Amino acid sequence: MRRLLAATAAALSAAALLVFPGHASAAPSPLPDFDFSACPAPPANADPGTWRCEAFVSQGVLTISDREVPLGEIRLTFSEGRVDGKYAQVFGDLQHAPTRISGTFGASLRLKYGGYSDFQSNDERRGELDLYAALRHPLLPKECTVGTLAAPLHSVVKDDPAVPFEVISQNPTTVKFGVVDSQLALPRTTGCGPLAPVADRLLGLPSPSGRNTFKLATYVRFKPL
Question: The organism sits in which domain of life (predicted)?
Fold first, then answer.
């Protein structure tokens, strides 16, 4: 298993271990509503007083070669803290409403959690997240996806200079930042039946690493557990 990102996005939190400066920048308006209902509880052996939940609200865009797919709002939650003095995290939930893909005769795409996340930032990346995308259309079977739970899309996101890190509020602690993955590889569709070649052609799949971009502009709010 790969080394153990969440603000996606991304989002994917560099804010995990930050000491926030005393001056918060002016808050943009309006702020999103944050939902902590899916926060996972700390593990039984968690170090007391070290755990908090992070609620992400992101606006995403996926670019496949020269096709831009606005993803709309993506919400993600996870909890982090320490166990025996070492950093640990527990994934909570990823929510994404289906978004229409222009030029595909009514097809929509919905991102789903692929079973792996690493929300601890380092000097090389903001974090990592496995995803797959459900592809929906009246003529496609319900099993039609880009990536699968067994073979997910692996996104490694870095800071996006276009959306610099910003402290929005100290109480409650709320930050904003952007992340980007310009190396995401997208395979052919899976489980799409006889129309799979049509779906692949409309989406431009497969699309190798270096031709795609996954971007998230993310607000994160923190809640002690």
Answer: Bacteria
Write the DSSP symbol of residue 140. Answer: S
- DSSP bridge pairs for 82: 87
Identify whether 92 is part of a domain: yes
In the chain, the largest separation of any two C-alpha atoms, in whole Å, equals 59
Q: The whole model's pTM is what? A: 0.84
Q: What sign for the dihedral angle of Cα 185, 4, 8, 18?
A: negative
Residue-wise pLDDT tens digits, 129-138: 999 999 999 9
pLDDT (tens digit per residue) in 185-219? 999 999 999 999 999 999 999 999 999 999 999 99
SS3 category, 18: coil
Question: Cis before residue 141, ω within 30 degrees of 0?
Answer: no
Identify which of 143, 142, 180 has the alpha carbon closest to the alpha carbon of residue 58. Answer: 180
Of 105, 57, 72, 46, the C-alpha closest to 225 is: 46
Q: What H or E segment, with its residue span, contains residue 203?
A: helix 196-203
Q: 120 is in which domain, residue-wise? A: 14-127+154-184+210-224
- The answer to whether residue 214 sits within a structural domain is yes
* Number of DSSP helices (H) and strands (E) in the chain, helices first: 1, 12
Phi, psi of 82 (to 5 degrees): -130, 145
Q: Is residue 61 part of a domain?
A: yes
Is there a domain that residue 202 lies in? no
What number of CA atoms fall less than 13 Å from residue 69's CA on the CB side? 24
